Amino acid sequence: MPKSPTRSPRIEDLVLRDLAVPEDGPEAGDHREGERYSSTSFDGLDLGGISFSECLFEGTSFNETQLRGARFRECRFTELFAPVFTAARSTWRNVRLEGTRWGSAELYDSTLESVRISGGKLDFLNLRSSTLTDVDISDCIIGDLDLTGVKGARVALRNCRVNTLTLSGGRLRDVDLRTTEFRALNGPDGLGGVTIDSYQLALLAPILAENLGLRVEG
């Protein structure tokens, strides 16, 4: 019986209307809704547990901002800047991230659902033990992408360049890596549920042979 084709991420529509300019700055644990932030610096703030719903962030900086347990729902970020981005155990639902520039991004133990990341540069993206559902990452340059222990369904990396990809211990289904270039792979045991093309398979052959204890001679 032929296998079914790899399913693509299902990204919900996102429309933001009637946004207000906030009169005060957000604080940890706040719920902020329907707001627009332009060229705003959140650098160094403690915003742990904060919730943003239906908000637009344009040219904002989140360097060393504490976002542990933060929740983002129906939000759009353009040109988000953060040499150090700390958002462990955060929740992202129906979110767009466009032109993101992250140095070290700590998003381990997080939940991403209906998220699109496009056109960014990320030196290190740590998604260890996160749950990714309907996530589309396109046209990004990523140094190290750590998907150790990730539970992922309908995830696509399209036209990306990844230096080192780590997949150990993940539970993956319909994860599409075709059209993405990666130079090194850690944890080839985590490739179950991943779709690659024939060119990528040829590049991976030595890694897979070593993992299986195969000797190739002649």
UniProtKB/TrEMBL annotation:
Pfam families the record matches: Pentapeptide_3
Name assigned to this protein: Pentapeptide repeat-containing protein
Ranges for region Disordered: 1-38
Organism name: Arthrobacter crusticola
Superkingdom per UniProt: Bacteria
InterPro entries hit by this protein: 5peptide_repeat, Pentapeptide-BTB/POZ_domain
SUPFAM superfamilies: Pentapeptide repeat-like
